[in-house]
Every structure is written in structure tokens, then in C-alpha cells.
Automatic annotation (TrEMBL):
The keyword Zinc does not apply. It comes from the Bacteria. PANTHER family: SUCCINATE--HYDROXYMETHYLGLUTARATE COA-TRANSFERASE. This is CoA transferase. The keyword Transferase applies. It comes from Orrella marina.
Length: 404
């Protein structure tokens, strides 16, 4: 297992973060901050974050929680109780950043809205992640990444044209939103260095999804163009698709630029395709009828080669391409190992779990995985003791079910 860096040497080690989040986008945002050294305290309800029930489990240990909650401390508090609310407020008063992804209005009803919190902590940066933002006609609606992909136009674009809209079986919009949220937090921290004041970072899942529609916004406004599903292809760009191999696998070939397309036709021994008026330019190949035909021609060629042989030819010709990896393939891939993207992290019950590595890579002050995700409420006592509570007071709070 890699040697873990001291938190004080990490770039965000001077930041205190409180997380009041559930499931994916909020916890993933706070995990990004923790990976780079932020002191993240996660406040959970007594039943725990729902992410602890998601994904696969071993010996009743949530493998998902072990990674998305890594580097954090956990305190289990009843925020609806007077004492629990007071403890949360005291923690937030000492924080630089509060990350929350509740439905708009929930924290306000608990007395933990931004206007309340800024009275005692004017430098607080409150990162608010929700389905549809803190205002607007949809703001009160519950929203998950999947529903917000539909609202933002992304789901309409996903899948094959002759089938209903599909989905990627991953929380892509949640993770994209978490990166926007972390970027917003760092932007606000930078501005606070000048003004001394905090602010709200309002991040909406549907807006993160919609941001991927960037090229189609002006295209619709000026041309009335409504994009449609194109399956594995890249709209208006070809060849850029999945092609079958002789051994039943698939190869992604992205030879859409004219120079790279010419190289592809050469290794196919069909150089005449590069001068065919249907395929000679990016714009010509992007026409639907020409795209379909060039994909057919390339597919006939790739079917004559098994995946390893095809991959070798494409790499030698410097043509952007890749086999469609499974997770099992990734564990055997030397590049993932060389780039520290499969990291063994110690675990008190399982010995270790292998987790995705830290992204992005910083040359001088890289992030690190300090420890696996904690059990629910694992740090409750130590956090309260650091706040000055005695063992007797902590015991009384436990007896009153304020803490777990």
C-alpha cells in the first residue's frame, strides 16, 4: 500500500469542511476536497447516509462508502433535536466550507440556512447542491442525476436512434456536478482572500447535465436544429464509433480528423477512400448517409482482425483507438497501475479495499487517500471531546439519542 502523506502537507489542509449530504453528488464533492487535505467532518443522521446501503457489501461493509467517504470524519447527530442542532451550528461556525445537498428549504427549517449561518460566520462558503437550484419554478422538486439528465436534454441524446432513450449505468451527472461544486468552492475561497466574505455556491444537477449540450444551444437558436440519438457515433464526426472484431469484441476508433482518417485508410489498404468526395473531408463524412457508409466499410475491415491484432495496427499508426474495457480488463491494464488509479487503502475489517486514485494529479502537492471511509459515527466522541465536552456529557447525549 502507498505511503500516506501527512494531511498538513496537502494543498487544502488549511480548510475545514462540514458535509451535510447524502448519496452521491454532495459526498463526492467533499471527497474531492478531502483527497487534497481538507479536514472534512460528515454529519450523518442516526440511520446514516443512504450511500452506505448502495453498491456491493462484504461482511456488511459498504464498499461504496469505503471510497466515497474516504478521508472524512463521521459524526452521527439528530439535527432536529435542540442539542444536536446546537452541536452542528458550533461545528459550522468554525468551518470554511459547508457542503449540503438537501432539497432547498430543508436547512432553513432547521435554522441552518445561509442567512442564519453568516451572522456568526461571515466567511462561510456554503456549497448547495440540488436538482434544480435554489430558486426558479422547479427548485422545490426532488431531483436525482437521472431525472436531471432528462430535463437537461442529455437523456434524449443517449442510446440508439431506433430505441427509447438509454442511460449510462453510472452516476455521471452526479460526479460532473461534484466537480463543478468543488470548483465553485475553490473559486469562492480565492475570492474570500480579497473580500473576507463567504457566499453561496449554487450548483444544480440539471445545469451540470445541460452544460454538456453547449454546441447545440446556438445550433438550435440559429438553425432550429434538434439533435437526435446516434448510438455509438459522434454526431457530425466520422469515423468515430464502435467497430466489431473477429473475436467478438469491440474497438472504439476515433479517426474523425482528415489527417488521421488518411492514416486509417492506409493501414486498411484502401487509400482511395481518402479522396472519395463522400469521405474526403470532415464535413462530408459527417453527413448521415456518408457516416453510415464509412462505418460499414470500416466495420467490414475490423471484422477480419482479432482485437489484439487490430489494436496493435491502430497504435502503430497513431490512430486514437481503444478496446472497450471491462472492470476486469482495467485491473490487468498496466497504465492504470502506473498512474496510481488503482490504490489499495487499508480497512479495519477487510484488510484493504482497492479504490480509484486521486484526480487530478498535482506535480508538487498531489492529493492522497489518507484513510478509508469511516463507520457511521466513528468520530462522534472524539469530535465532541475536541469541542470541550466531557465523557459524562457525551454519555448523556448518547442516552438522549442526540448522538449515535
Amino acid at each position: 500500500m502507498p505511503e500516506q502523506a501527512h494531511s498538513g502537507s496537502l494543498p487544502l489542509s488549511d480548510l475545514k469542511v462540514i458535509e451535510i449530504c447524502s448519496t452521491i453528488a454532495g459526498p463526492a464533492c467533499a471527497r474531492l476536497l478531502a483527497d487534497f487535505g481538507a479536514d472534512v467532518t460528515k454529519i450523518e443522521p442516526h440511520e446514516g447516509d443512504g450511500v452506505r446501503q448502495m453498491g456491493r457489501h462484504v461482511q456488511d461493509v459498504s464498499l461504496y462508502a469505503a471510497t466515497i467517504l474516504r478521508g472524512k470524519k463521521s459524526i452521527a447527530l439528530d439535527l432536529k433535536s435542540e442539542q444536536g442542532n446546537r452541536i452542528a451550528r458550533a461545528l459550522i461556525d468554525q468551518a470554511d466550507i459547508l457542503v449540503e445537498n438537501n432539497r432547498p428549504g430543508v436547512l432553513e427549517r432547521l435554522g441552518l440556512g445561509y442567512e442564519d449561518l453568516r451572522q456568526t460566520n461571515p466567511g462561510l462558503i456554503m456549497v448547495r447542491i440540488s436538482g434544480y437550484g435554489q430558486d426558479g419554478p422547479y427548485s422545490g422538486r426532488p431531483g436525482y442525476g437521472a431525472t436531471c439528465e432528462a430535463v437537461g436534454g442529455v437523456r434524449h441524446m443517449t442510446g440508439d436512434p431506433d430505441r427509447p432513450p438509454a442511460r449510462v449505468a453510472l452516476a455521471t451527472t452526479d460526479y460532473l456536478t461534484s466537480v463543478y461544486a468543488a470548483f465553485g468552492a475553490m473559486t469562492a475561497v480565492h475570492e474570500r482572500a480579497r473580500s473576507g466574505l463567504g457566499q453561496v455556491v449554487d450548483v444544480a444537477l440539471y445545469e451540470a447535465a445541460f452544460s454538456q449540450m453547449e454546441p447545440y444551444v446556438p445550433a438550435y437558436e440559429k438553425l432550429g436544429f434538434v439533435p437526435k440519438r446516434v448510438g455509438p457515433n459522434l454526431p457530425t464526426m466520422a469515423p468515430n464509433s464502435l467497430y466489431p472484431t473477429a473475436d467478438g469484441n469491440w474497438m472504439l476508433i476515433a479517426a474523425n480528423s482528415d489527417i488521421i482518417f488518411r492514416r486509417l485508410t492506409q493501414i486498411m489498404e484502401q487509400s482511395e477512400l481518402a479522396t472519395d468526395e463522400r469521405f474526403a473531408t470532415i464535413r462530408a463524412r459527417g453527413k448521415p448517409e456518408n457516416m453510415k457508409e464509412i462505418d460499414r466499410i470500416i466495420g467490414e475491415w475490423t471484422r477480419t482482425l482479432d482485437a489484439p491484432s487490430l489494436a496493435a495496427r491502430l497504435i502503430e499508426a497513431a490512430i486514437p483507438s481503444a478496446p472497450v474495457n471491462t472492470i476486469a480488463d482495467i485491473f490487468e491494464d498496466p497504465h492504470f497501475t502506473a498512474r496510481d488509479m488503482l490504490v489499495k487503502v487499508g480497512h479495519p475489517v477487510l484488510g484493504h479495499t482497492t479504490q480509484t486514485g486521486v484526480v487530478p494529479k498535482l506535480s508538487r502537492t498531489p492529493g492522497t487517500i489518507r484513510h478509508s471511509g469511516p463507520d457511521l459515527g466513528a468520530d462522534t466522541d472524539s469530535i465532541l471531546a475536541a469541542m470541550g465536552l466531557s465523557e459524562q456529557q457525551i454519555g448523556e447525549l448518547r442516552a438522549l439519542k442526540v448522538i449515535r
